[in-house]
Design a protein that fits this description.
Oligomer: single chain
Shape: globular
Radius of gyration: 26 Å
Largest sheet: 6 strands, mixed
Helix content: 40-55%
Number of strands: 11
Number of helices: 14
Strand content: 15-25%
Structural class: alpha+beta
Distance between the termini: 95 Å
């Protein structure tokens, strides 16, 4: 009996020791991850503080434009092929992440370009893409500053929450605070104008630029890891896409048709820039014979992280198609792995038709309901997620008729007229 009791005591002791070991391991593992997260936050915070110190040293006079020094492109850009697919050629850009600066005399106009990550019909305003186009009107040059969405900025939250980052700043602290943080990180005196657009509008812009599959092209631009990079490479890809679009399509903004494109473009996004300001900038750049060469538009990544960035030619449809395949091949195993809980697919056309049907029922006596239901989708230009062009145009026109009627019944003629102006400008833009 004593022997049996002794055996129970030994087993109980061993089991207790096993539980203690498990608890210690779990605590150690959790603490290790926590320390790693805190260390990452600390590094980003130090970069942000250092950026603030550096900004204080910069002459922020509007007449002195600070930009990164150019390097000899023959040494800094090397053409290679992606080992996984020989068709995916790119160059290595060694200058985009450097911290060196040079000073140009002349006026600098800073325009923040922000891609808003909001779900269909949702008012969410997370800043998914963050760029500043700095236009040096007196020299006919541009600098695009690209900032990763998770860049650290002190928003007053505890660092352990992971909320002190730029993407949260736009949604939680508003546009004014966001633009101030963008200027600080980009090492600029201020942001003069802003341009914001959502997922659907981005697809419309990409379509206007001539890409055959806007959804897939946007998927490439939003991919963090599918092309073998991280958030820094992703924001650099977006900056290069903007750069190459400017170089390829600037001529569309000049001449008689330029007025149509400028007006339509400004109505297509949310911005504080007027037609007169935009047209004047185009006119001044045209006077400088912009673009004289591809080198007059540079892309910089801030905070400065000295990496070898992959530079893809987004004007080559074959390269874009190949990038789409790479991203899809990267995503497929992840989707297969999570097959037990797949992400729901939204049928955008069906959703928008349902919203229209509800608005039609309310249109006779409840105009406020019509405005509340349709406005979030209208502001997003949600119909650009509908692939069928005829169905898309029909949905857009129905949105316009219903909203125009609702605002008229509310005795708001200015808002009613604005709805039709936006739709007519869009039609002209995409003809």
């Amino acid at each position: 009996m004593k022997k049996k009791k002794k055996t129970y005591i030994i087993i109980a002791t061993l089991f207790t020791l096993f539980l203690i070991a498990c608890v210690l391991y779990t605590y150690s593992h959790t603490k290790k991850n926590e320390n790693k997260f805190i260390k990452t936050q600390k590094i980003q915070k130090e970069i942000a503080q250092e950026s603030t110190k550096e900004k204080d040293k910069i002459d922020t006079n509007f007449l002195k434009a600070a930009t990164v020094a150019e390097s000899d492109t023959s040494e800094e850009f090397i053409r290679v092929s992606d080992r996984k697919n020989e068709d995916a050629e790119y160059t290595i850009d060694k200058t985009a992440g450097t911290a060196a600066k040079t000073v140009f005399s002349g006026r600098r106009i800073n325009i923040a370009i922000t891609g808003i990550d909001g779900r269909l019909g949702s008012p969410s305003r997370h800043a998914d893409a963050n760029h500043v186009i700095s236009i040096l009107v007196d020299s006919g040059e541009m600098e695009i500053t690209s900032i990763p969405r998770d860049t650290y900025c002190d928003l007053g939250y505890d660092d352990s929450t992971g909320l002190n980052k730029l993407t949260i700043c736009r949604s939680n602290k508003g546009r004014k605070k966001y633009l101030a943080e963008v200027a600080r990180i980009a090492r600029l005196d201020r942001i003069h104008y802003y341009v914001e657009f959502g997922f659907s509008q981005a697809m419309g812009i990409i379509e206007w630029l001539g890409y055959k599959d806007p959804a897939n092209t946007l998927q490439v631009l939003r991919s963090r890891k599918g092309l073998g990079g991280d958030d820094y490479q992703r924001c650099y890809n977006q900056g290069q896409f903007i750069r190459q679009a400017i170089l390829s399509h600037f001529d569309k903004l000049t001449g008689i048709s330029g007025a149509i494109f400028i007006r339509g473009g400004l109505f297509f996004v949310e911005t504080n820039m007027t037609y007169d300001i935009a047209a004047d900038i185009v006119k001044k750049l045209e006077a400088q014979h912009f673009p004289q060469s591809k080198e007059v538009v540079a892309v910089r990544v801030r905070p400065p992280i000295n990496l070898n960035y992959k530079l893809y030619d987004f004007t080559d449809q074959n390269i874009v198609d190949n990038m789409v395949k790479k991203v899809e091949n990267f995503n497929k195993p992840r989707f297969d792995k999570d097959i037990e809980a797949p992400q729901p697919t939204v049928n955008v056309e069906k959703r928008l038709n349902s919203v229209i049907e509800q608005a039609i029922k309310d249109s006779a006596s409840r105009p406020t309901q019509v405005i509340n239901k349709l406005s979030p989708y209208f502001e997003q230009r949600a119909w650009y997620q509908v692939k069928n062009r005829h169905a898309r145009d029909r949905i857009r026109d129905q949105f316009g008729i219903l909203l125009h009627s609702a605002y008229s019944k509310k005795n708001k003629p200015h808002e009613a007229e604005n709805i039709m102006t936006i739709i007519n400008s869009e039609k002209q833009l995409f003809q």
